[in-house]
Amino acid sequence: MSRLLLAFLVAAPLFAADLTGRVAGRDGKPLKDAHVYVYTAQPKKGLGVICPSCYIDCGKQVAVDPGGNFRVKSVDDKLQFKLLAVADGHEPAFSEYRNPGPGFDFELKRRDVSDGARLVRGLVVDPRGKPVVGAIAMLQAMRLPDGGIGFGRFPGIDPLSITNAKGEFALRVDSPATLIDVRVHARNFGTRIARELLPGVPPQRIEVNVGATIAGRLVDGRKPLPGVRVAFAQLDRDSEHFLGFEEIATDAKGWFVMTGLGTELEYQVLPRMASLAPLAVPARVVKTGTDCSTADAGTLVTTRGFRVAGRVNGKNIPEATRVTIGNGVDVQTVEVKGDGRFVLTGVPAGRYGVSVAARGYDLAPVRLDVKHDVEGVTFVLQK
Prior knowledge:
Immunoglobulin-like; five-stranded antiparallel sheet
């Protein structure tokens, strides 16, 4: 598997193009000390078969010229790119994914360091102690004075920050007494939750590691299945511990390699219903190992998926009415036909909720325990 991933990383692009743009402050003046990084990449169509930061162009960086202009030369023209701009004293910023060419323009906001007593500051470093640029620090939880813990967004607390060229981030909180947990996601590293960070103190050191890998293969009999979306869902989805969902596509030979996962955690590995139907593969639980290790998910073999069919009844079914089946990890959606009928295929065995999205209606979902084909699921549209 390591040779497979290496082949992706060293393959040179057949067609090359440049990424160009400008970095300025909110006043429009060029930021002469700015640097621009190629952060991640993705195919122009479909999902990538390697992690977004594993493409050969990722990690390239350039300094801007005196006019704030930059040019990243000779990137793969088959990809779209997300760039990161950093400048001393300013908030870093990402671009949207764009095709190679001009238009990667940044307007950076000056970093506000007033009222330091309400700033939670962190320093993100790699295992060698080197600052990690462009790491995303997101609010994971707020520690309450009574010892409880709160999740979600809170007034007066910044939802996220991005590390600058020194690896530092700052999140403003509502009170000097507020402690927060922060989820740090850094390119080429595993996601890490730093707990009970304090405001009003020097940057608190957060070390991120490479993380763990899960690898495997998807086949239909002996035939490899390329281009199938494979999801990796941490089994423990408690808000205090959850690191998020990851997804990657199988390559031309059906292989998948997902890097940067949490260490010594159980993950559900499951091909997405929507990209595999009418076939299906039951979710497989795989436990990751220690840092830099690879866990083998084995060969996932397809079976015939189950069929869930029914009808939406009503005098006038709104256009674009949709039916969705899901289990909290995977979903599949179909549009309802003119006569109200719908058919969902490729559903693995398991417990699901089936819901209807119809303009002007609010219907309760139906709960199903799918062990075989299910017919006759009915929704009635009534005001």
